[in-house]
Amino acid sequence: MTNLNTRTNNLNLLYLYPNQSQKEWIINEALNMLDAMIFRIVESRSFEEEPYGHNLSNSLYIVPNNAKNTWKDYEPNTILVYIDKAPIKIMPKRGMIFWINDESCFILFDGKEWNALQIKPTA
């Protein structure tokens, strides 16, 4: 029996299939997601709502516990990747590490929450 999964396990990217229409759209979305997830820079995890007035294209945000307005329907700790100003949801997985721009630190997802990493400089 053939495996009928339609998405990848970690990033939830769509697979391509023979005779599938609009393959270029699927490939472009996957490339944008890979670009965002490989670079791993999150603008903020403290904004309570979508940051209007910011250039959202190709930006990542983490939804806080006290999310409001357009973000209130997302689970806390969800990663939002903005592609063409529209958010795409990625559920965090244990072991994910990101740099947080507005905190100037790395954070690690432990399976329940994001925690700042204490990195000691080497001599």
Describe the structure.
The chain has 123 residues and is of the alpha+beta class. It has a domain at 42-116. It is 14% helix and 23% strand. It is built from one helix and seven strands, in the order αβββββββ. The strands form two sheets. A four-stranded mixed β-sheet has the order 1-5-6-7, with helices on one face.
> Would you tell me the overall average pLDDT?
86
- Report Rg: 16 Å
Strand order of the largest sheet: 1-5-6-7
Helix content: 10-25%
**Biggest sheet overview:** 4 strands, mixed
Give the termini distance in whole angstroms: 56 Å
Quaternary state of the chains: single chain
Helix-strand pattern: HEEEEEEE
Total strand segments:
7
In the predicted model, the low-confidence regions spanning at least 5 consecutive residues are: none
| Structural class computed from helices and strand pairing | alpha+beta
Relative strand content: 15-25%
Number of helices: 1
Note the overall shape. globular
Helix and strand layout, with pairings?
Elements: H1 23-39, E1 41-42, E2 59-62, E3 79-83, E4 86-90, E5 97-100, E6 105-109, E7 114-116
Parallel strand pairs: 1-5
Antiparallel strand pairs: 2-3, 3-4, 5-6, 6-7
Based on the model shown, name its key terms.
123 residues, alpha+beta, 4-stranded mixed β-sheet
